[in-house]
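Priority: medium. Attachment 1 of 2:
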């Protein structure tokens, strides 16, 4: 499957120079930076602004025109020397897109007379001016370096830029209110607008009407063949594929017809309890298909869940999933299959689960089944449509962006892994391990009132997620993480 719902980023690199320093110093350092970047990472996502070295406000205007004409949708302001804090921060202010600042280090002890640029000092003034202008920009952990160092900083900025740009050009399409007893997935949408996300809220009746209109869609047989190919031997419920194909076309057509002026889309739907009896199936497999194409579809009208998934998709440029932080690992399973084999305590482990929404490419094996929980109270024939299997072992990042009831942004991030341990259970499920999960669960997830859904990216993406959340306005003190042993949470009992 090809991810086709994420931005491509082109970063314009603009060098700046304070007029009492040699402009050639900034120009030569910029050329060395571009050479180092293209040698290591290629030239596809970077552009060297050749128009001028920015020394004045007029230079800033000319550089802004140049990077826009070159199709740049992200910006790197490079302090080749001390730099003019007014002009350089005005450039960031007027550039419409994500931006970063980094600065040149001195190259040699033999060139500290005319070759000293003082950009280490200039970064302080730049950051001060960004603050008083209210301009958001990414500044690396240590933002001063030689050409190779700064090339790495710019490359680290790419996933952050993709996420920021994607959020600002995203529409979330939702269907239906949250299911009863799932208030945990409810959150004020004001912060979506504050972030620049567009939201389109629809009724389940709107979706059902659109579904009925697709009953005889001539594309259905072709979609069924695609499903049969993907499912292979896991095609255990072939009788439900026509309706699932009809539903897939309903959603994909809705997305195209309602995308409007937005470049990217994420979706969230109400998937129970009336969905099964009215539509005649569960939508989990279709959610997995679209998520595998880079269009996250979260369950239970979890709007911030699908936004979290989308952020992970564009950062990782890979498939993500949304899971319940669901159940504990039985002690006998821990003793038999984990203890002594992996470096985790029992309380570091848990099981992440959802009915069947995880893309087949992220499952060790997969089968089309019926939704076991729903089938306890509904006829089995209307609960078919889950894609079940154990989640592939490997590194993961568990994370979520959330608005609180009083409309404040907060987030959490925890890196860990899915263990190669059979789940012995049903659904799309895996045995997860995160260092100090028990304390993190109590003093971040519970203490900060997070819902049961967490997004999962397949790999270690904590660094980029942290910087993205900072950039979009989540207070640093509201970004929770799994603190190591010996580092106490504010609410943690010191004698526990």
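Attachment 2 of 2:
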């Amino acid at each position: 499957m090809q991810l086709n719902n994420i931005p491509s980023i082109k970063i314009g690199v603009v060098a700046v120079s304070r007029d009492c320093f040699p402009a050639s110093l900034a120009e030569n350092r910029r050329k060395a930076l571009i050479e180092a970047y293209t040698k290591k990472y290629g030239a596809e996502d970077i552009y060297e602004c050749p128009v001028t070295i920015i020394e004045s406000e007029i230079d800033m205007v000319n550089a802004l025109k140049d990077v826009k004409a070159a199709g740049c949708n992200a910006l790197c302001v490079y302090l080749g020397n001390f730099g003019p804090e007014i002009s350089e921060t005005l450039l960031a202010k007027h550039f419409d897109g994500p931006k970063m600042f980094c600065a040149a280090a001195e190259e040699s002890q033999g060139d500290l007379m005319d070759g000293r640029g003082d950009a280490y000092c200039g970064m302080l003034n730049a950051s001060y001016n960004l603050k008083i202008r209210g301009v958001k920009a990414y500044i690396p952990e240590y933002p001063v370096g030689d050409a190779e160092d700064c090339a790495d900083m710019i490359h680290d900025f790419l996933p952050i830029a993709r996420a920021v740009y994607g959020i600002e050009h995203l529409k979330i399409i939702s269907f239906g209110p949250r299911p009863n007893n799932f208030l945990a997935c409810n959150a004020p949408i004001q912060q979506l607008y504050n972030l620049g996300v567009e939201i389109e809220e629809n009724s389940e009746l709107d979706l059902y009407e659109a579904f009925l209109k697709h009953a005889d869609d001539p594309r259905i047989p072709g979609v069924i063949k695609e499903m049969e190919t993907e499912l292979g031997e896991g095609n255990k419920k072939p009788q439900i594929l026509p309706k699932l194909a009809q539903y897939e076309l309903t959603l994909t057509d809705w997305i195209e017809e309602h995308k409007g002026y937005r470049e990217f889309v994420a979706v969230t739907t109400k998937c129970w309890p009336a969905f099964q009896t009215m539509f005649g199936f569960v939508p989990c497999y279709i959610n997995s298909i679209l998520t595998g194409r880079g269009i996250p579809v979260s369950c239970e009208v979890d709007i911030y869940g699908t936004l979290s998934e989308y952020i992970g998709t564009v950062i990782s440029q890979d498939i993500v999933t949304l899971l319940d932080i669901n159940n504990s690992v039985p002690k006998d399973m821990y003793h038999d299959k984990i203890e002594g084999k992996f470096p985790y305590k029992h309380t570091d482990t848990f099981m992440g689960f959802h009915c069947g929404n995880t893309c087949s490419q992220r499952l060790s094996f997969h089968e089309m089944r019926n939704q076991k929980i729903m089938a306890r109270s509904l006829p089995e024939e209307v609960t078919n449509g889950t894609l079940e299997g154990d989640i592939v072992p490997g590194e993961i990042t568990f994370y979520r962006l959330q608005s609180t009831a009083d409309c404040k942004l907060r987030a959490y991030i925890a890196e860990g892994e899915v263990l190669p341990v059979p789940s012995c259970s049903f659904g799309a499920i895996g045995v997860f391990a995160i260092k100090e999960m028990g304390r993190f669960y109590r003093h971040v997830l519970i203490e900060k009132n997070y819902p049961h859904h967490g997004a999962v990216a397949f790999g270690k993406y904590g660094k980029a997620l942290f910087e993205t959340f900072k950039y979009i306005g989540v207070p640093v003190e509201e970004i929770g993480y799994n603190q190591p042993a010996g580092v106490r949470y504010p609410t943690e009992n010191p004698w526990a």
